[in-house]
Amino acid sequence: MSDLMTQRSSLEDIVAVVFDKDGVLADSEPINLKSLRQVFASHGYRFGSEIDRQVVGRHPKDYFPAIARQFGLSTARQETMYAEKEALYARMWEEDGSLFDGVHEVLADVRSRVSRLGIATSATRAELDAFLARFELAGFFDLTLSRDDVARPKPAPDIYLSAARAFGTDPRNILVVEDSEPGVTSAHAAGTFCIAVGGAHLAPGTRVLADRTIATLRDLPALLGDLGRG
């Protein structure tokens, strides 16, 4: 648990709440992992759940080369498989992609407590814009940041430092909602107040970097209510 826990016990100083996309709002990580496994299996390569922590919270541009190197794949083979993976993921997401239960309601509730909301994701700008349009979420957010808007993606702190600058405040006044090791690490390194959702993919050493943890996104309003009474 970070030092911010002892510095803040209420929402009094929170200027904005910033949400991660994949694994927080979008139920996309299972599709991400499934498409990766299927493509590698089609080429004769298999791996188990140990791969999950290399993948969850990262864009394929960041994790795919490292996994390919583990199997000694040539650059040409890697490029072919990456293209196959992205095409398969796109089909799966189009057919089965969804929001987590209650996203619209939670965002509306949070907006009633904190006036400004943002979204900060390791997805590309095109992916982010398509997501916001598909699920009619753009109207909730005053700020949208993608990997294309920063020099370094998560786990570097760049995206949350950028959010703080955009909102004109200190990172300590930004409340971040994350779910993955790269995301929690990024939020902590930036100095924000971080709430981790779920935590199935968080190592104990990363879990303690979060200021609070909740089981599901639907638990967020109640937690904010508790903080508001702090």
Offer a few descriptive terms.
230 residues, DNA polymerase, domain 1, 11% strand, Rossmann fold, 6 strands, six-stranded parallel β-sheet, alpha/beta
- Tell me the fraction of residues in β-strands, as a range: 5-15%
Helix content: 40-55%
* Sequence stretches where pLDDT stays below 50 over 5 or more residues: 1-9
> What's the SSE pattern?
HEHHHHHEHEHEHEHEH
> Can you tell me the CATH class of the largest domain?
Alpha Beta
Determine the structural class based on helices, strands and strand pairing. alpha/beta
N→C terminal distance: 17 Å
CATH superfamily of the largest domain: HAD superfamily/HAD-like
**Largest sheet geometry:** 6 strands, parallel
Mean pLDDT: 91
Q: Count the E strands.
A: 6
CATH architecture of the largest domain: 3-Layer(aba) Sandwich
CATH topology of the largest domain: Rossmann fold
Count of distinct structural domains: 2
Descriptive notes:
The chain has two domains: 4-27 and 98-228, HAD superfamily/HAD-like (Rossmann fold, 3-Layer(aba) Sandwich), CATH 3.40.50.1000; 29-96, DNA polymerase, domain 1 (Orthogonal Bundle), CATH 1.10.150. 47% of the residues lie in helices and 11% in strands. It is built from eleven helices and six strands. The protein has helices at residues 4-7, 29-42, 52-55, 60-70, 75-96, 103-113, 125-134, 158-167, 181-190, 204-207, 220-228, and strands spanning 16-19, 116-120, 143-145, 174-178, 193-197, 212-214. A six-stranded parallel β-sheet has the order 3-2-1-4-5-6, with helices on both faces. β2 (116-120), α7 and β3 (143-145) form a beta-alpha-beta unit. The chain is globular, with a radius of gyration of 18 Å. Mean pLDDT is 91; it is low at 1-9.
